[in-house]
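Cont'd.
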Amino acid sequence: MRNVRDTMVGAALVFAAYYLGLLIVTAASLSIPGPLLGLFILLGALFCFPRLEPHVARAVTFPLKHMSLLFIPAVLGVTVYWGDIKTNALAIVIAIVVATSFSLGITAWLSQRLFNAKESGDVANVKNNGDTDD
Amino acid sequence: MIEALYNTLSYRGLFWLSVSIISYMTALWANKTCRGHPAAHPILITALLVSIGLYCSNTHVSDYQRAASLLHWLLGPVTVALALPIYRQWQKLRHYGWRLLVSIIFGGVLAPVSAWLTLFIFDTPSAIQFTMLAKSITTPLAMESSAQIGGIPALAAVFVIVTGIVGAVMASSMFALFNVRDRQAQGIALGTVAHAIGTAKAIQMGDDVAAMATLGLCVNGIFTALALPVVVGLFI
């Protein structure tokens, strides 16, 4: 019974943040997505009231895990643009496959260098790195 | 929301919603059978099964989208829910500070710009070029921002998912090529460049990698969604 109530409270918070975000973005005609502002509002709420975390967690863990299902209507919409994709297939494939692969490698390389600099930098923390902050 | 509920509470709505959910459950099972290989991503299998259903029942995609609009509508609240993983990884973010942010922003700029440059060289239509700029961020944010900069949300969803799959499949060989052994760095790159699908791959690699990937996913998604309308606005 408690679980059900926790889930309801968490879900109500998420929806409240969502609608508040939409409302502000529409009212102030901001050029950011409404849900993104909602995300900031919820994040702010979590920082101000850490006690809310288990409630939110109970409500959102399942939908976050199965977010994939929610993309299906949008993904199927792509059939409408099939012609455009076919005419530009080569460019799109290169853009996605080659650019993504190298971006992935280069980004990992850069962050490895930055993190290594950090780890050799603060000697006091060397022992603790990696396992204390999980 | 009222309209989405209204569409769902009809015979067609309930029918296509059930078809989607059953297809998704089948896809989860198939993905498990393939031991979570990125190419067997549940989205691809679900989309395939649902489109077979549409083909057999001679239903147009736009009719299906109307019937299943509840699913699409839920993307908004789920985006808001991404606040939870950010909150949980906050300590990590503070520990690595600017180094983490620089890595994420670097990856978040490099991936879309290199892809956009390719399309620019090949002289593809500008709507596709704009759509490509949102390819490395998580799908709900990508769809919102591509709509705002004059791209095509449906195309954005597909670019994003294919990008994620490519990233997850290529990850091991790319890390070997660039000699990246730091697990935290691998996680950051996976989350930043290959968003949720990269994060799913990171989860298989271990909890520490997954935590960094989640941060990359969320922070890059936020930065890109904030920056894209502004940057594109400057150039048009």
